[in-house]
Amino acid sequence: MMSILVTGGAGYIGSHVVRALGLAGMDCVVIDDLSSGHAEFVPDEVPLVQASLLDAAAITRAMTDHSVEAVIHLAGFKYAGVSVDRPLHTYQQNVQGTVLLLEAMEANGVDALVFSSSAAVFGTPDVELVTEDTPTRPESPYGESKLIGEWLIADVGRSSGLRHTSLRYFNVVGSAVPELYDTSPHNLFPLVIKALREGRTPRINGTDYPTPDGTCVRDYIHVADLAEAHVVAARRLVEGETLEAVYNLGSGSGVSVREIMDAAAAATGIDFEPEIGPARPGDPARIVATGEQAARDLGWENRHTVHQMFASAWNAG
């Protein structure tokens, strides 16, 4: 029986993709070095290969042992801020790892790939609504490495006929089930939840931005909706269809930091007034993308409200 290789499938997003594949009746195998993933996030019935993408032999064994016909590539070093201090590590994990994966795919006749890219490829866009045609100007080694990944994949597609697509997204939040949750030390939702559980008051950085309530507006999407888009893309590629090279998985509207704090209070029953800190240098007032192209081709839809997003995150873990 053929299966899909999910790189980084023991991580927060990857484990939700694995779950969505199972719900769709599609077999998969996970490869993850568990540097930020968790073995317990992978269902018992799903094979887990504990290895780095820098281990070319391990990638090949996973492909041959499990009759892999397509890849959903989520593995990578994902911390944009940290990447500034660790550029070589970031490029090694995200660029060299992708090169070795593509080589293994080519050698083993695996010709379909869904790449987990990032809205970090845009940097700080100067448009009200980001589209797939918005110029890419990454501002961190992480964003650069993701854009290089897109280029590599597109080049291989032109040379070998690889069917592929790259999915770009901003802030992924929430949980589909309580046992799968975000453990990142850098993301807003886990930081707010940690503060509230420890009896501390969450903080807003800056309240004088040119937005409706003065706080930054970002594109927050629920991880279950995101996972479903990966599965739809993989299925269409496996069936021999051609997709666009890139899709933005955006909400089209965005959510402010103040709205998230209000949702946190409502979901937890903790009545708090967030602390106000100074705006952080370089934080743009608004970054929101349209998901119209993905809606057309992948059935993409942001199906959860901010209240549902925060409540699912609070009830997980």
TrEMBL record:
GO terms for molecular function: UDP-glucose 4-epimerase activity. Keywords: Carbohydrate metabolism, Isomerase, NAD. Pfam families: Epimerase (PF01370). It comes from the Bacteria. GO terms for biological process: galactose catabolic process via UDP-galactose, Leloir pathway. InterPro entries: Epimerase_deHydtase, NAD(P)-bd_dom_sf, UDP_G4E. The keyword Nucleus does not apply. Residues 4-250 form the NAD-dependent epimerase/dehydratase domain. Its cofactor is NAD(+). Its EC number is 5.1.3.2. It is an enzyme of class 5 (isomerase). It catalyses: UDP-alpha-D-glucose = UDP-alpha-D-galactose. Pathway: Carbohydrate metabolism; galactose metabolism. Belongs to the NAD(P)-dependent epimerase/dehydratase family. This is UDP-glucose 4-epimerase. It comes from Aeromicrobium marinum DSM 15272. The gene is galE.
